[in-house]
């Protein structure tokens, strides 16, 4: 069976101030053309179809168009909800849409109920594991402690139990939206840390033939059977070096997996430039980036006059301007932002406690801080679902 694996469309998301709807529409057209060209048997979309729980109308219209075009192909499509989606909104009408060959899997309780497709070698069971927010699904899976690994492990136990009851030789594909150990994140993904731990080991998914992952925006291979497709478009400058693509996966009759990367259309290349303003404006080596979306980091010791206007004279698509003067590490003027770079909200809070008290939080206080941040994030998820 030939499977096209994609994820993280983030319909409705902008790139800085640039509306990406036309690029997203172009990707949907590319997806449909790829299904035809490569004689795909099934499409899987591993979450974050939308960028937020209540997407703009234009994004909903594009999704509706995508559903109709995929249904018209007569090729089954399996989709799950991600942490950016409202599972309840995305899943509206799922029972009716099933009849058109579009299978929306947004309910945690249905993790062990697959979409079963067949080819010349027998059945292939597709199990959809939507994003599982631990605080919200721990009762569903009867786990004592809310954590990503525990709820995913419980969901996979249901998958393996169902698979064991099926005829021998039934092949299996799992769609999941999670941060798996070994994956490389970017600045574009929303933090899903719970209890200070976000990543789950790839071994959680043992026992199935292929795992189609979503959440991380870079296309990457965790193991030969566990892969991220990544997002089809770049949504932050941290993705400047990404090659945006989808996986074309061939699942043989014996469960053997082979995969090929298929490139996605690039609306405009990205460039991250660093140097003094005068150097950026004069350096001939930067000529290839003059048509790119640009993030410029200026290292001038004193902020120059009208930097954005001067930059856009040469780089008309400059979207981000960052000031990072070259100074000694002990310079008192080193920016607060630089001192916080790469630190999580929880780490910043722990540093604040140490700063005002003269000593960092003890073990009990660390636990209280962790619970507070988890509760705030879970409350935000509940509010999005409720809306």
UniProtKB/TrEMBL annotation:
Residues 267-355 form the Nuclease SbcCD subunit D C-terminal domain. Keywords: DNA recombination, DNA replication, Endonuclease, Exonuclease, Hydrolase, Nuclease. SUPFAM superfamilies: Metallo-dependent phosphatases. InterPro entries: Calcineurin-like_PHP, DNA_Repair-Maintenance_Comp, Metallo-depent_PP-like, Mre11_N, SbcD, SbcD_C. It holds the Pfam family Metallophos. Residues 1-218 form the Calcineurin-like phosphoesterase domain. Belongs to the SbcD family. Heterodimer of SbcC and SbcD. SbcCD cleaves DNA hairpin structures. These structures can inhibit DNA replication and are intermediates in certain DNA recombination reactions. The complex acts as a 3'->5' double strand exonuclease that can open hairpins. It also has a 5' single-strand endonuclease activity. This is Nuclease SbcCD subunit D. It comes from Streptomyces sp. 900105755. The gene is sbcD.
């Amino acid at each position: 069976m030939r499977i096209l694996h994609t994820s993280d469309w983030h319909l409705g998301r902008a790139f800085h101030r640039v509306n990406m709807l036309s690029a997203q529409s172009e990707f949907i057209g590319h997806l449909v053309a790829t299904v035809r060209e490569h004689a795909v048997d099934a499409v899987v979309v591993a979450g974050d179809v939308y960028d937020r729980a209540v997407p703009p109308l234009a994004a909903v219209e594009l999704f509706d168009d995508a559903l109709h075009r995929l249904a018209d192909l007569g090729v089954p499509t399996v989709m799950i909800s991600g942490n950016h989606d409202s599972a309840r909104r995305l899943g509206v009408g799922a029972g009716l849409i099933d009849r058109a060959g579009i299978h929306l899997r947004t309910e945690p309780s249905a993790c062990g109920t697959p979409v079963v497709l067949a080819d010349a070698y027998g059945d292939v069971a597709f199990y959809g594991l939507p994003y599982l927010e631990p605080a919200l699904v721990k009762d569903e899976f009867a786990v004592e402690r809310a954590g990503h690994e525990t709820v995913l492990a419980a969901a996979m136990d249901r998958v393996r139990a169902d698979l064991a009851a099926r005829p021998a030789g039934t092949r299996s594909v799992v769609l999941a939206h999670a941060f798996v150990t070994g994956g490389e994140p970017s600045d574009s993904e929303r933090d899903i840390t719970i209890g200070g731990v976000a990543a789950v080991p790839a071994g959680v998914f043992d026992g199935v033939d292929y795992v189609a992952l979503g959440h991380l925006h870079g296309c990457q291979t965790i193991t030969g059977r566990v892969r991220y497709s990544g997002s089809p478009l770049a949504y932050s400058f941290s993705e400047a070096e990404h090659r945006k693509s989808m996986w074309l996966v061939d699942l043989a009759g014996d469960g053997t997996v082979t995969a090929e990367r298929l490139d996605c259309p690039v609306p405009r290349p990205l460039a991250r430039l660093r140097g003094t303003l005068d150097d950026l404006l004069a350096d001939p080596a930067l000529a290839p980036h003059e048509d790119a979306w640009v993030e410029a980091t200026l290292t001038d010791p004193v902020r120059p006059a009208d930097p954005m206007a001067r930059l856009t004279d040469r780089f008309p698509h400059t979207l981000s301007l960052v000031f990072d003067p070259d100074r000694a590490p002990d310079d008192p003027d080193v920016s607060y932002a630089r001192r916080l770079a790469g630190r999580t909200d929880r780490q910043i809070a722990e540093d604040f406690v140490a700063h005002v008290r003269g000593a960092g939080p003890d073990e009990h206080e660390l636990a209280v801080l962790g619970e507070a941040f988890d509760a705030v994030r879970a409350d935000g998820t509940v509010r999005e679902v409720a809306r």
